[in-house]
Design a protein that fits this description.
- The chain is an all-alpha fold.
- It has 13 helices and two strands, in the order H-H-H-H-H-H-H-H-H-H-E-E-H-H-H.
- It has helices at 4-13, 26-45, 47-51, 60-85, 91-99, 117-134, 143-171, 175-194, 206-211, 219-237, 262-272, 276-289, 291-311; strands at residues 247-249, 254-256.
- The protein has a two-stranded antiparallel sheet with strand order 1-2.
- A hairpin with a 4-residue loop joins strand 1 and strand 2.
- It is globular and about 70 Å long.
- The protein binds Phenylacetyl coenzyme A.
- Phenylacetyl coenzyme A is lined by residues 34-35, 38-39, 42-43, 46, 73, 104, 106-107, 122, 126-127, 130, 133-134, 194-198, 203-206, 209, 219, 269.
Length: 312
């Protein structure tokens, strides 16, 4: 008899996508549910810091762009919840895990958005880090996740450009505007490079996820690529990154950088960052307030189904 695990591993090795009905190790399924649902939660919670600025965007064009971006993030959450549902978990279960505080979402969204320049810094740095991490996920071994990521990455690229353009505009503006842009970069830089997760030697899931081709690069590899990219882009803004140790290293062919504050990272991941409680409360309230929409949609779907059955 054919060994299902061998068939699975051969497919992974030969770059053939694993699809929902294929046999897969239980741990592969669990790892994907964990990663995809946490990713979906990050997109949905990630709408909150920027939504905070929709009513205060400085021009109509900026307001329309920001609304579109926040809507895109909602769409990403929905594709990702749908991808996770193919692994035998319901959306209600995933949302319960988020609302009860059991499931994680990205640490970055527990920081406050204090000025308009934060919209620029989030687009440039947060979406920039997200793209660096997510482009390799388009080649993830699990088909539904990989396919969802293709569209998500295209939209994230637009988000990154709109953020960079906000900062570029501010950097060419008045002294106060330049200062506001620099202050936003100073506050968002370190949390952005923490988005890639713990160092490789402290990352319990990386080795197995890379063997299964869920992840294609390690946390540290992606972080380094991101730092190398931003160290060059910041020069166009004629602003600086808040790291005195940031320096090109010819031997490594990479930028060296300073020590990451891992104590702060774990503190935020464990629920004690500046906005964790506020974010979870806002999300739980939005879910509760939206109950009538879900009920109406379910009733509508039921009615259409019975009409179709009668017609058949
Ligand atoms: N925050 O062993 P690893 C976005 C947890 S989307 C919180 O390295 P793994 C779009 C990790 O879950 C941003 N927790 O884990 C947007 C694990 O805990 P667990 C989200 C973190 O999975 C932009 C533990 O630490 N992107 O920004 C973080 O192999 C603007 C050990 O870590 C994704 O989710 C963190 N930063 O690697 C939206 C991408 N890092 O589960 C709105 C997909 C690690 O054992 C506005 N995910 N942890 O309890 C991934 O690529 C991976 O899951 C990593 C972590 C790289 C995040």
């Amino acid at each position: 008899m054919l060994d299902p695990e061998k068939i699975f591993l051969d497919k992974v090795y030969e770059e053939i996508k694993i699809e929902p009905k294929d046999w897969m190790p239980d741990q592969y399924r669990k790892t994907l549910i964990r990663q995809i649902s946490q990713h979906a939660h990050s997109e949905i919670v990630g709408m909150l810091p920027e939504a905070n600025w929709i009513t205060r965007a400085p021009t109509l064009r900026r307001k329309a762009t920001l609304i579109a971006k926040v809507q895109d993030e909602a769409g990403h959450g929905l594709y990702l919840y749908s991808a996770a549902e193919t692994l035998n978990i319901t959306r209600d279960e995933m949302l319960d895990q988020l609302h009860s505080g059991k499931a994680k979402y990205s640490s970055i969204f527990n920081y406050p958005t204090l000025t308009w320049a934060d919209m620029g810094a989030i687009g440039w740095l947060v979406d920039g880090a997200a793209i660096m991490n997510q482009v390799p996920l388009c080649r993830c071994s699990y088909g539904p996740y990989a396919r969802a990521m293709i569209r998500i990455c295209k939209e994230e690229s637009f988000h990154q450009r709109q953020g960079f353009e906000i900062l570029l505009t501010l950097s060419k503006g008045t002294e106060a505007q330049r200062k506001m842009a620099q202050d936003a970069i100073d506050r968002w830089w370190w949390p952005s490079i923490m988005m890639f997760g713990p160092n490789d030697d402290a990352s319990p899931h990386s080795a197995q996820s890379m063997a299964w081709k869920i992840k294609r690069f390690s946390n540290d590899e992606l972080r380094q690529k991101f730092i190398d990219m931003c160290a060059e882009q910041v020069k166009i803004l004629r602003l600086t990154l808040p790291d005195e140790k940031l320096k090109w290293n010819e031997k490594r062919n990479h930028f060296d950088f300073g020590e990451i504050n891992w104590k702060e990272f774990w503190n935020v991941v464990n629920g004690n960052g500046p906005c964790n409680k506020e974010r979870l409360a806002a999300r739980t309230k939005a879910h509760k307030d939206g109950a009538w929409v879900r009920e109406a949609a379910a009733a509508h779907a039921e009615k259409r189904k019975s009409r179709a059955q009668k017609a058949a």
